[in-house]
């Protein structure tokens, strides 16, 4: 069969992504990307260190970024994104800006980071008081709060899992439990940190239940990278991506006051609940059990 009339593949825009060596959610990043954009991913070199402030510093060293950016430039991306939240907030606001400058110098390509994209996204939706959910330890979560404070963002509540490995295996049900525990008081939005924490399918559910915009690390990374090249990220009913969603149920109130009077809150859908819970006392497959029982959020680490 003669297929010469097809003329070859359509032109593609390219987004380069520098991810930590243990990043496991390539497919999740692709879900925000339209068909005429290709992602080009590279990873930082392996180091035998668990998720911690030390690891965040190691995977964000300028020498590491320089090598990764030069490798990506071989395929001529239009923008390069550093997809790691902790690696881009561990040095504070000044450290994040220095990372962007180092990447631009290495590749002469517009560059951004997850933490910088977060601040940009919060400004886009007009949020200055946010709740924070992380899979990190207390020290890493504290560092995120410090970074946000430097940027003029107040953390109104938070919840974290205390994990140092296998973060990509956390089920959606644990993310939902943490979100409910973290959103207290007057809150403009919720941020779910860590590019290795699955969030794509849970964002619409949480926006409907909490009635506020919900941002996640991978979402803001892809949104900012695509916007930098004049492309709209895709995703079902997410306030950051869809101005209509900001005026709908997800943004019906600007605080954690729950559903409007007389309107029952939506029941979380089973599709987002993850696999059935294992028998009592049995750890999740490949994942350390969370530091609190699912039915008792009062045992969350202290805020």
From TrEMBL:
Q: Give the matching InterPro entries.
A: Iso_Racemase_Enz_sf (IPR053714), MaiA/AMDase (IPR026286)
Signal sequence coordinates: none
Identify the stretch(es) annotated as Disordered.
249-303
Q: Which Pfam families match?
A: Amdase
What is the protein named?
A: Decarboxylase
Q: Which organism is it from?
A: Streptomyces glebosus
């Amino acid at each position: 069969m003669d297929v010469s009339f097809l003329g070859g593949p359509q032109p593609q825009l390219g987004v380069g992504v520098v991810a930590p060596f243990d990043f496991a959610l390539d497919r999740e990043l692709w879900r925000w990307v339209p068909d005429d954009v290709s992602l080009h991913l590279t990873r930082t070199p392996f180091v035998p260190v668990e998720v911690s402030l030390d690891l965040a510093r190691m995977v964000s060293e300028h020498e590491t970024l320089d090598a990764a950016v030069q490798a990506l430039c071989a395929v001529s991306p239009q923008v390069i994104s550093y997809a790691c939240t902790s690696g881009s907030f561990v040095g504070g606001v000044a450290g994040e800006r220095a990372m962007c400058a180092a990447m631009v110098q290495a590749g002469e390509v517009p560059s951004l980071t997850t933490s910088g994209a977060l601040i940009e996204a919060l400004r886009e939706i007009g949020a200055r008081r946010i709740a924070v959910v992380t899979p990190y330890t207390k020290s890493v979560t504290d560092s995120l709060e410090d970074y946000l404070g430097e940027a003029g963002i107040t953390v109104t509540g938070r919840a974290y899992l205390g994990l140092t490995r296998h973060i990509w295996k956390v089920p959606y049900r644990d993310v939902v439990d943490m979100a409910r525990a973290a959103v207290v008081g007057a809150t403009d939005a919720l941020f779910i940190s860590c590019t290795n924490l699955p969030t794509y399918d849970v964002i619409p559910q949480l926006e409907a239940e909490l009635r506020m915009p919900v941002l996640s690390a991978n979402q803001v990374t892809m949104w900012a990278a695509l916007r930098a090249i004049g492309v709209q990220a895709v995703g079902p009913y997410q306030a950051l991506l869809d101005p209509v969603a900001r005026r709908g149920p997800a943004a019906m109130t600007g605080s954690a006051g729950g559903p409007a009077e007389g309107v029952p809150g939506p029941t979380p859908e089973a599709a987002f609940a993850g696999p059935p819970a294992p028998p009592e006392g049995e750890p999740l497959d490949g994942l350390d059990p969370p530091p609190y029982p699912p039915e008792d959020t009062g045992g969350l680490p202290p805020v």
